[in-house]
Amino acid sequence: MDAADPVALGRWWCEALRWVVVNDAPGEFEIRPSPDRLPGLIFEPVREAKAGKNRLHLDFRPEDQDAEVARLLALGARRVDIGQGEQSWVVLADIEGNEFCVLSSRPG
């Protein structure tokens, strides 16, 4: 994932996903579900700012949507309007403006 600050963005996603850091180098910050489990995410520095819609969009599907939205907002996410209107999901952005959604739980 391109980042203005790979360490800060990588640490944010590490907390958001509840993963672990496997490489904390500023030029290639990597997180994974556990140290020996793939796939992971690598955050690399870029000079240019994010422009337009994300090409990769992550969706969270928690047990409790309201609690998860509150947790992510407490980590520094923010609500964003991308023209979604009234929906069952909540659109948030990470600390560098990358959008993702928090879906409602699946019916039993």
Automatic annotation (TrEMBL):
Pfam families: Glyoxalase_6. Residues 1-103 form the Glyoxalase-like domain. InterPro entries: Glyas_Bleomycin-R_OHBP_Dase, Glyoxalase_6. This is Glyoxalase-like domain-containing protein.
